[in-house]
Amino acid sequence: MRYSRLKIIFPIGLFVALFLDGSVSNVFAGKLFSYPYASVLHLVLLWIVFAVFLDDRDNLSVGIWSAFVGLVFDWYYTGILGVYMIGLPLVVYICRQIKPWIDLNFLTLLMIYIINLTILEAFTYIWYTMSHVISSGLADFAVYTLGPTIAVNLAIFVILYYPMRRLYLSVN
């Protein structure tokens, strides 16, 4: 009975994170997207990384849910289908591959989150460059988008780590 609560809370939290990604970005748009910098919030990614690493039994369909929420994210926020629909399940796959090899604690989960954040942002950059949506160079992307995005999401991770960990462990 206890484990079924996680199967209910995970999708609800995923869609709350999806909603908050857009809402918080909209509210703080003046600070997050002040030219030439762009800081992209990734609360959905944070929720997914926590789900992969804190689900002891690996019974959640995180890959399927991430593809679905990626499709919704693409459809509603980006308007370009496929970017997050492929990128988020890719992150889930990478996390599942490295999960058996790590000792889970605050610092390792932080590093994994930063690595996955970098992978997702680089994947998005490559996709948008190939689609001719953006034309900025790699150095501009690293300095003006990737760096600020990592900084903002690092702060959010530090603030939300213990409450989210406690939530996952209490319903797991």
TrEMBL record:
Q: What is its main location?
A: membrane
GO CC terms on record?
Answer: plasma membrane
Which InterPro entries does this UniProt record tie to the protein?
Cell_shape_determining_MreD
Any GO BP: regulation of cell shape
Family note: Belongs to the MreD family.
Q: What name goes with this protein? A: Rod shape-determining protein MreD
Taxonomy of origin reads:
Bacteria, Bacillati, Bacillota, Bacilli, Lactobacillales
Membrane topology classification: Multi-pass membrane protein
Where do transmembrane segments lie in this chain? 35-54, 75-94, 106-129, 141-162
Q: Which UniProt keywords apply?
A: Cell membrane, Cell shape, Membrane, Transmembrane, Transmembrane helix
Tell where it localizes. Cell membrane
Keyword hit for Cell membrane:
yes
Specify the species: Lactiplantibacillus plantarum 2025
